[in-house]
Amino acid sequence: MNIVGKVHEIGATQQVSETFKKRDLIIEYAENPTYPEYIKFESMQDKTSLFDKVKVGDTVDVHFNLRGRPWTDKAGKTSYFNSMIVWKLDVSAQGSEAAQYAPPVDLNVPAGDSGDLPF
User: Fold this and answer.
1) For position 31, what pLDDT does the model report?
2) How far is CA 60 from the centre of its chain?
């Protein structure tokens, strides 16, 4: 899965245990610009460095896996948790994509010919 949004917040790397670390990234997702959503993504282990290349305000394409798990408390009540785990992150050049491409060419006009009639 992937989603494109704007970086709202970048968390610090948390060393949870001697062998496990994680990091959070909050994305502003504005499918409806009037009511933007703020979505929390997580990275783990070596993927925590993916967030080093972005800054607040960048438009990014976040590729992630959606994970869910149950948890039962001591009273026997089961709750469910979802996690969105990032595996790839691309900084987007949204808005400047048109500048990457040359203008269209009329293939019916021979090279070097302006297409103007001589009279």
Assistant:
1) 87
2) 4
